[in-house]
TrEMBL record:
Biological process annotations from GO: methylation; tRNA processing
Reactions mediated catalytically: cytidine(32) in tRNA(Arg)(CCU) + S-adenosyl-L-methionine = N(3)-methylcytidine(32) in tRNA(Arg)(CCU) + S-adenosyl-L-homocysteine + H(+); cytidine(32) in tRNA(Thr) + S-adenosyl-L-methionine = N(3)-methylcytidine(32) in tRNA(Thr) + S-adenosyl-L-homocysteine + H(+)
Biased composition (Pro residues): 18-28
Keyword Disulfide bond belongs to the record: no
Species per Swiss-Prot/TrEMBL record: Lynx pardinus (Iberian lynx)
Name of the protein in its database record: Methyltransferase-like protein
Compositionally biased residues, Basic residues: 1-14
GO-annotated cellular components: cytoplasm
Location of the region described as Disordered in the Swiss-Prot/TrEMBL record: 1-52, 190-215
């Protein structure tokens, strides 16, 4: 018998178009048969579909695009007030005249709704959860790093942080605009309404590309003569650490000529990194009497700060400094600072050296000046993720890149600050539940936030 060639099957063109979602509120009327394309930048909704109806699914590429994009919608509906409801309602912009929710105001009352938002505030742990975290800490602390390696991590700590910033530059951390909600002292002249309207998308700072050699970073240091009418520049090339050391030694002789000596409100950030706190402060606080000092252990980080286009030597002074080195002086006299900021920096210090570091910093505060801290709390997710062999001492660990981190309790921080002669204004634990809705994961973060004030001088004094 002869074989018959199979007749090629034709793809049927009778394919029903995918259902189109309800129109989404937008400026201007929606076209017939479909929704108008979202026009706002960063809109979380799906992009527009070309034409009044979706393309036919016989086109594989367009069909896959259609199924993928429309799956983002879920069940979308519009309430009577014109507000989008459904699984992505939290992404919709606030209605006209409605303020954005502040941090710390989203509470999880129904565990079934845990994946309805990306984060929940002030989440209380169950007894079982706390016990499991304690067991995990005991487990990863049983095997300690050998003493020789611990000495290496301490002696070469600056090298590990330099390597970190050489690799990541300004792309690892994001600008901390949330600081003004947590610490309004950083912009005391701004109204609360203005601070609530600050951008919360944490845009990265724009830092020009900066390359360093193995012999150490070279940097053009600009000495600016600032006046209200003109700004003159005198540049010279020198290594960062050498230049800063020369300036600080000069300041010890001429204490009245320190940078920002004419300022009326002075802020120092210790452990500034690439400026993710400094630049938002300079951008937000428009007080003409403001001057910001910032220092970091890493000369590479300071180089990135000084080469940032937002760096203004008339309002800011960045310098290399080792928080634990008692022989290094600060570029300001005692009792001259209004605010000292410690954001995730004290945890990188060896526990035995923390108290002396805080004592030195407290002497720089004016009477009534404040020290602001936010750092890792005990049993934070980052602590529970450490493996055996990464523990240096109790609650003190080394990361894979050689940088170190400590996890605090409220009592430990209270002892550090009160021993330095400061009075407690705030000492709280921020327990936050972060959610990965795509992978259906929950991550429990624990941070501690503190405010401590230097006592005012008595009338008798």
């Amino acid at each position: 018998m002869g074989s018959r060639k199979p007749t090629p099957r034709r793809h049927s063109a009778r394919v029903r178009p995918a259902p189109f979602p309800n129109p989404i509120p937008n400026s201007g009327p929606a076209p017939v048969g479909g929704a108008r394309a979202p026009t706002s930048t960063g809109d979380c909704r799906a992009p527009p579909c070309p034409g009044p109806f979706p393309p036919r699914l016989r086109d594989f590429r367009k069909g896959a695009w259609l199924r993928r994009k429309f799956s983002l919608y879920g069940k979308v509906s519009i309430s009577g007030s014109g507000v989008m409801a459904g699984p992505y309602a939290e992404c919709a912009p606030a209605a006209v005249g409605q303020k954005r929710q502040q941090f710390g105001s989203r509470f999880l009352s129904d565990p079934a709704r845990v994946f309805h938002h990306n984060a929940w505030d002030n989440v209380e742990w169950s007894e079982e959860q706390a016990a499991a975290a304690e067991r995990k800490v005991r487990e990863n602390s049983t095997q300690r790093v050998c003493q020789d390696k611990q000495v290496d991590y301490e002696i070469n700590a600056h090298k590990y942080w330099n390597d970190f910033y050489k690799i990541h530059e300004n792309g690892f951390f994001k600008d901390r605009h949330w600081l003004f909600t947590e610490f309004p002292e950083l912009a005391p002249g701004q109204s609360q309404d203005h601070l609530e309207d600050l951008p919360s998308d944490n845009k990265r700072s724009e830092v020009p590309e900066c390359r360093t050699s193995e012999d150490g970073p070279g940097l053009k240091i600009e000495q600016h003569k600032c006046s209200s009418n003109s700004l003159e520049h005198e540049t010279q090339t020198a290594p960062v650490e050498e230049n800063v050391t020369q300036k600080l030694s000069h300041l010890e002789i001429c204490a009245d000529e320190f940078p920002g000596s004419s300022a009326t409100y002075r802020i120092l950030e210790v452990g500034c990194g690439v400026g993710n706190t400094v630049f938002p402060i300079l951008q937000t606080n428009n007080d003409p009497g403001l001057f910001v000092y910032c220092c970091d252990f890493s000369s590479t980080a300071i180089e990135l700060v000084q080469t940032n286009s937002a760096y203004d030597p008339c309002r800011c002074f960045a310098f290399v400094h080792d928080l634990c080195d008692e022989d290094q002086s600060y570029p300001v006299p005692t009792s001259s600072l209004d605010i000292i900021i410690l954001i995730f920096v004290l945890s990188a210090v060896v526990p035995d050296k923390m108290q002396k570091a805080i004592n030195r910093l407290s002497r720089l505060l004016k009477p009534g000046g404040m020290m602001l801290l936010r750092d890792y709390g005990r049993h934070d997710m980052a602590q529970l993720r450490f493996k055996k062999g990464q523990c240096l001492s109790e609650n003190f660990y080394v990361r894979g890149d050689g940088t170190r981190v400590y996890f605090f309790t409220q009592d430990e921080l209270d002892t550090l600050f009160t021993t330095a002669g400061l009075e407690k204004v705030q000492n709280l634990v921020d327990r936050r539940l972060q959610v990965n809705r795509g992978k259906q994961l929950t991550m429990y973060r624990v941070w501690i936030q503190c405010k401590y004030r230097k006592p005012l001088l008595s009338s008798a004094g």
